[in-house]
Amino acid sequence: MILVTGGAGFIGANFVLDWLAENDDAVVNLDKLTYAGNLENLKSLRGHARHLFVQGDIGDRALIDALLQKHRPRAVINFAAESHVDRSIHGPAEFVQTNVVGTFNLLESVRAHWTQLPGDEQATFRFLHVSTDEVYGSLGPTDPAFSETTAYAPNSPYSASKAASDHLVRAYHHTYGLPVLTTNCSNNYGPLQFPEKLIPLVIHNALAGKPLPIYGDGSNVRDWLYVGDHCSAIRRVLEGGRVGEVYNIGGCNEKTNLDVVNTLCAILDELHPGSPVTPHASLITFVRDRPGHDRRYAIDAGKIERELGWTPAETFETGIRKTVAWYLANQDWVAHVTSGEYRHWVSRNYADTPA
Question: Which of 88, 210, 277, 339 could hold 157 in an S-S bridge, CB 3.0 to 4.6 Å?
Answer without folding.
Answer: 88
